[in-house]
Amino acid sequence: MSPRARLVAVIRRRLPELDEDAAWRGALAGAASLFLLLVAIAVLVPLRDRLDTGSIALVLLLPPLVASNGGRTLSLVLALISALTFNFLFTHPYYSFRIDSSASIAAFCIYVLIAIVLANFVGGFRTASAAARQRAKSMELLQTLAVDLIRSDDLRPALRRTLADLRDGCAAAAA
User: Fold this and answer.
1) 80: helix, coil or strand?
2) What pTM does this model have?
3) Residue 28's closest CA among 59, 81, 66, 77?
4) CA distance 168 to 116
5) Any idea what DSSP says for residue 68?
6) Which of 68, 38, 44 is nearest to 57 (CA)?
7) Which pairs with CB-CB distance under 8 Å and at least 24 residues apart come from 121-129?
8) Other C-beta atoms within 10 Å of 89: how many?
9) pLDDT tens-digit profile of 139-174?
């Protein structure tokens, strides 16, 4: 069994509602966003005294956005991890989850809110895009059926082709 198949099997055991492609996409999005977070930390920690916290916060918003390719839950988890990383490594006192000033508390809360809202919006756009693709596929099948019905004297071959297209397009074995 390939590593991809093993990883997809593990993910689908925990989240059985996901199909194989969604599970793989989620795994890749999670790995890519964690890698991006680690790279951002490695680059930004030596520069944190020279950069303002707003610039650092913007860079740390990228991992939750990348994670949104794997779904809303993954994106929300990465938003929280990114926010905690921002607090731990880039706000005073460093290497502590304690926040000293009220301005830092406000910045942290706003950061978490922005990360969650962005992750939610991008996840919603992904869901809407998938629904639009499915509607376009359905409309294409209906258009093909209409053209076949107009051109054909016998309805049976047109209906057989349409049912075969529906079965293939919707992955429905019972069609």
Assistant:
1) helix
2) 0.68
3) 66
4) 37
5) G
6) 44
7) 122/65, 122/68, 122/75, 123/68, 123/71, 123/72, 123/75, 124/72, 126/68, 126/69, 126/71
8) 17
9) 887 787 777 777 777 777 777 777 777 777 665 555
